[in-house]
Amino acid sequence: MVMRLRIDCSYDGTEFHGWAKQPGLRTVQGVLEDCLAKILHTEHFHETAPLLTVAGRTDAGVHARGQVCHVDIQEDVLQRAVGHLDMDPVSALEHRLKFIVPLDISIISLKEAPYGFDARFSALERTYVYRLSDCTHTINPLIRNAVLRMDKPLDIESMQECASSIPGLKDFGSFALPNPNGTTIREVKSAVWRRLELDEFPYSLESGILTFTITADAFARSMVRSLVGAQLQVGLGKRSVTWFNEKLRNPFREGATGPAQPQGLTLEKVVYPSVNKLASRAEKIRAKRVLD
Questions:
Q1: CB half-sphere exposure, 57, CA atoms < 13 A
Q2: CA distance readout (Å), 135 to 151, 153, 226, 268
Q3: Active site includes 59?
Q4: Considering only CA atoms, which of 131, 114, 132 is closest in space to residue 122?
Q5: What is the pLDDT of residues 242-253, one digit of tens each?
Q6: How far, in Å, are 162, 163, 189, 203, 225 from residue 213 at the CA level?
Q7: CATH number, span 2-112
Q8: 125-273 is a CATH 3.30.70.660 domain
Q9: Is it true that 2-112 and 125-273 share their CATH fold?
Q10: pTM (whole model) above 0.90
Q11: What is the pLDDT of residues 73-113, one digit of tens each?
């Protein structure tokens, strides 16, 4: 019998070539699957290593604080995680995985997933935050790997004017690439720029940092970084708000701007519906979206 497990994790993406496994490259998926294979001794038994399905594939250099994935494991294979531990198999696997992963990955929790759960397709929404520091503030060295440094001041009012036009069900084809047989239609629920003022958060690591927080049902490839990259052009005075809005209205990549650098982007959280709606949500999202 197969058991589906939900894994919540976080990672510093600096030394990873993204989430998805790639031959010869260090990726989050590759490292986690190798760790699971070692704990469960799948190589010893000449079995296929456990395969992970993730809520959101992050690009090279992108971080995550609230990533979610799932894995299907045969119960007899899962039993191998127990060994000398006086624990049930799921707790034993969680215990061992937390101590075997490298320091740039943290396992928040590992538990049996409820019926109908799919880390990717059951998700209601994902939230990303892009952090940057312009020349008006310095970066706290403790978070330097997760913040983009800018050498010029930014016009946050113009950037927020751009952000206010983003929410809604739209084709973001001018800011993203579709997956094979996929679409760039997404529903953005909120998008906002904010500076965490020093007097408001005097002891926060993020004091003085400029953040762009965006929540959507899902994101297409490079969508968040491309939206940020275009808004930075406006914030630097190189482009106008009208130009940005035209890009939103015309979903075609014209090559005028590229995605912002990856180190400022973090997947903050993934939200799921109640247990009784997990399966129906997954079925709905698997259908290809169109604009009415």
A1: 16
A2: 5, 6, 22, 25
A3: yes
A4: 114
A5: 999 999 998 876
A6: 13, 10, 11, 21, 12
A7: 3.30.70.580
A8: yes
A9: yes
A10: yes
A11: 999 999 999 999 999 999 999 999 999 999 999 999 999 99
